[in-house]
What does this fold into?
Amino acid sequence: MATVSADQIMADPAHSHTDWDTNASTYVSAYMVMVVGVLCAALAWKAYGRKGADLFSLEVHFSLFSLLEGLAFGFAGIAQQTIAHDHWQGILISRRPFAPHSEWLAAWALAMVAAPLASGCLLGALCAHARAASAWTRWAAILSVLVALVDLYLCAVSVDLAGRAAMAWGLAASLLALALSAPGGREATAMIVGCSVRAGAYLVLVFAPPGCWSSGNDCPFPAEFSQLAVFNSLSVVAIAFIYAGTAEKMRAAQPYLPALSGDGPRRCCGM
It folds into this structure.
């Protein structure tokens, strides 16, 4: 297998592992998010999915959120494991699309597309949960697509910058979702906790010192369990609580769902 020489690295700084996490805890925890996300999506749709369900309903948006969140972390885990494998083999990755040892970029690009879409679906789920106007859901979807396109472009031209837009949108969507769930009071406890934990997970990334993203010494997280592993672990908890909040809301709405007619738009909980 071809490797990249030191002379090539000097001539082409696109070949480097610098600033990329190669710890097993990072991609293993990402795979955990994938499993929990896909499982919660399947369970929610099996229990509460309805044939011909309205696109603005809670069950549709939660299922899409959980599925896309799981896929985003799964693809990110594949990219991180590929980088780690090349690192262990002494192979230097390429940051340039279609160059040798740039296979990880395809998985990373898919993760960068799925992540903002998942955040938009979460916001849509909370709009349904709070019985907000469907126009807010449409705007969330538009913003999510725009962020996904920005990150996809950055994956092609400057992959080190890719993910920042998704991170900012993920934090904003989580905080907005928290604001929408808060008026629910005790009945929305699980949803509030889930949105709070997800916002906290993004805050871990936002406030991680610069040394955590490089080889610096000013990082409070241990090398074996980086800020990304913490982010992934908190994301598992967030999905589980948001699923619990969705299930609680849907169970309360079950007596009303059979009475819904197909003539008009259908919202969560018979609204």
